[in-house]
Amino acid sequence: MAALGFKRIDAHEHAQQNLRIAEHLAKCLPPLPPVAPLPRPVGRPKKQRTADEAVSSTAAAAAAEPPSKRARGTYTHWFASPYITDILAAYARVGRSARRTIAVLQAGAPDDRYSHLSASTLRSWFGADKQLLPRFQEQLDAGIAAHGGRGPTRALDAAPLADAEIRRVLLLMREAGTPVNARVIRWVMRAVMQQMAPALLDCLTLSQSFISRWAREQLQWRWRSRTTAASKLPLDWEAQGVQMAMRIAANMEMHRVKVTHTGLQQQR
Questions:
Q1: What is the pLDDT averaged over residues 231-238?
Q2: Mean of the pLDDT values across residues 58-70?
Q3: In the predicted model, what is the mean pLDDT of residues 188-204?
């Protein structure tokens, strides 16, 4: 260091040197580089509007907008919705009272699908004889023809206990992590109906479309892409098979069921 002509300094002198440099830079700031002006935009510059002018122009634009566009999102075309059959069935079931129909529908719906339906709207669909007016009957017939049937009618309304039991079993299966597909739902429906409402099986076909629409609208479920998850055997399938056989044997012993060459018979 001495050979190059620099004086050796200690830490204190180094700190003092940095302080003197900082004071010098604070007093004599270096000039900032010149800022290039922004290029002028093409065309005539926009006029700056005040807040009152902006509000008045927005109101004028809203007034000039067509009424159908302004009312979008606030009107429900019930005769084009999948709930029209449920509404008409509930109206006939409660004695054709509009207020009671709204109360029953809103109390039994799993969501707010009927929150925009009013008693006055429902009452306007029918004439003095409590029958659908011709123009609404035409809309109903057109919807039936477009969908190839009456859609997801609440066929289980005639057996509310069976409906509640089907929902309870399916929800318990979902909570337990069991894969539920259309076949599983059909088996649960058929088993519950055979026990609680066998007459429904004579007039109701548990088709794929019916089960799909029922699960979407009544349970608010969404179908996933088709996979084979529900068809795979669980890891403990052998133990589950043994437990199933034990349960069958216990039930047969409890109900005194014996096996013969003609099938199963219950002893009296």
A1: 78
A2: 53
A3: 84
- Residue 251, pLDDT score: 84
Cα-based distances in Å from 228 to 170, 178, 180, 207: 19, 13, 11, 20
Q: Pull the structure tokens for residue 38.
A: 């922004």
Tell me how many degrees the CA angle 230-231-235 measures, rounded to the nearest 5. Answer: 90
Q: How confident is the model at residue 48 (pLDDT cuts 50, 70, 90)?
A: confident
Q: Look at residue 68 in the predicted model and tell me its pLDDT.
A: 44
Sign, CA dihedral 42-48-51-57, equals negative
252-263 pLDDT per residue, tens: 888 887 777 665
**What are the structural domain ranges in the chain?**
78-148, 154-223
Structure token pair of residue 10: 């200690």
- Which residues lie across from 260 on neighbouring strands? 263
SS3 string of the chain?
CCCCCCCCCCHHHHHHHHHHHHHHHHHCCCCCCCCCCCCCCCCCCCCCCCHHHHHHHHHHHHHHCCHHHHCCCCCCCHHHCCCHHHHHHHHHHCCCCHHHHHHHHHHHCCCCCCCCCCHHHHHHCECCCCCECHHHHHHHHHHHHHHCCCCCCCHHHHCHHHHHHHHHHHHHHHHCCCCCCHHHHHHHHHHHHHHHCCCHHHHCCCCHHHHHHHHHHHCCCCCCCCCCHHHCCCCCHHHHHHHHHHHHHHHHHHCCEEEECCEEEECC
- Residue 263: which region, alpha, beta or left (left: phi > 0; alpha: psi -120 to 50)? left
* Residue 258 token pair: 């014996």
Contact 185, 191 (CB under 8 A): no
pTM of the model: 0.36
